[in-house]
# Entry
Amino acid sequence: MRITIYWVTRDWNLIHRIREKYRLPQYMTLNGLTEAEVDEETLAQLKKGETKFLIIRKIEK
# Structure
């Protein structure tokens, strides 16, 4: 499924580690958004850290 992530944190090291761990694209728009294709398991893991580091704005199946 395709999701849009808004990065709440500005800790670039943390963002890099999250991208590496979940194999997310290494880009961010000027608005702080990253679009990614993820599976159900990855989405569940991202939702655990959602309140601290990121906001999942849009989920398309």
Observations:
- Strands lie at 2-7, 33-37, 54-60.
